[in-house]
Amino acid sequence: MSAGPRSLNTAILDGAATAARVREDVAADVKRFAARHGWAPGLATVLVGEDPASAIYVASKRRLCVEAGMSDHHRKLPADAGQEEVERVLRELGADPAVSGILLQLPVPEHLDVQALLACIPEGKDVDGLTTASAGLLAQNRQGLRPCTPSGVIELLDTYRVPLEGRHAVVVGRSELVGKPMSQLLLARHATVTVCHSRTADLQTHCRSADVLVAAAGVPRLIGAAHVKPGAVVIDVGIHRTDDGLCGGVGPMTIAMLLRNTLQAATRQADG
Ligand code: NAP
Questions:
Q1: Ligand 1 centre and the CA of 201: distance in Å?
Q2: Which of 70, 119, 245, 272 pairs with 204 at a CA distance of 20 to 30 A?
């Protein structure tokens, strides 16, 4: 997955193949888990409203969850669902022993307080890794459930044996969802990390000094050949529809890591 122009000596990190391998590994571990405990891990997806892209994402997550041998606990709420109603659903799922992990599909309709909703998800079931508790555990480099997109990037880099220790990693983007946890995961792997954002002066110079460059700015084609040092590894996290079709995207890795997180949550719950 490279944002640079393809040439004969450009190697592509194959996110789709890596994601398929992770899903196979998870499915094998789920089988062993079910044989040992007599129940399978369960993923609850909560979708509020009718956003078509969100509906597609949730459908993929549910399908791949079932394919991995896990149980599917979907809750669909109308776009005008009130704060209390959504919080009640999240708490019910939090108390349900058949539910190992809970994913609240974002964005939620604007009238809802997303932070208050996330706070209803117990830390042990926070398979999207987005609650304040999970963010704190990551910031302190303590064990916990990590956000799926950045942990998918790490898995991809590990699969291709990209060295991180002592290397210069540059992350473009500092969102709570992608950029910030990405930079913390790279730091935990002993990379020297630079985080760029919309106020960064001379983005190109920073990017060009990267051994590993992760683009997560949500701006298509922001990173071009002039931003990339020869030999650098580039991961484009953005999903963009352009005139040439879809570009970027580590989408399959994100879902694979969600499944792995759900298994990890179930294992922790089963082991008490
Ligand atoms: P976001 O919340 O919009 O954050 C974008 C970040 O990029 C912000 O930190 C912003 O800086 C920075 N930025 C914006 N314009 C910039 C510029 N011109 N130069 C440098 N930095 C700039 O987006 P996000 O949720 O982090 O998502 C980032 C991308 O990842 C999007 O394309 C999204 O579609 C994609 N994504 C993919 C997956 C997946 O599964 N593959 C999952 C989630 C997101 P400020 O903080 O200064 O505003």
A1: 17
A2: 245
Give the integer Cα–Cα distance in Å for 140 and 5: 37
Tens of pLDDT, residue by residue over 218-240, are 898 899 999 999 999 999 998 76
Closest C-alpha to ligand 1, atom 4: 175
Instruction: Determine which one of 29, 125, 126, 128 is catalytic.
Output: 128
**Rounded CA gap, 14 and 9, in Å?**
15
Least confident of 107-121, 160-174, 194-208, 238-252: 238-252
- 105 noted as active-site residue: yes
What is the 144 CA–ligand 1 centroid distance (Å)? 24
Our mutation pick for probing the ligand 1 site, out of 103, 170, 198, 254, counting the most ligand atoms within 8 A of Cβ, is 198
Q: Can you give the chain as a three-state secondary structure string?
A: CCCCCCCCCCCCCCHHHHHHHHHHHHHHHHHHHHHHHCCCCEEEEEEECCCHHHHHHHHHHHHHHHHCCCEEEEEEECCCCCHHHHHHHHHHHHHCCCCCEEEECCCCCCCCCHHHHHCCCCHHHECCCCCHHHHHHHHCCCCCCCCHHHHHHHHHHHHCCCCCCCCEEEEECCCCCCHHHHHHHHHHCCCEEEEECCCCCCHHHHHHCCCEEEECCCCCCCCCHHHCCCCCEEEECCCEEECCEEECCCHHHHHHHHHHHHHHHHHHHHCC
Q: Which of 29, 61, 180, 264 is catalytic?
A: 61
Residue 213 confidence (pLDDT): 97
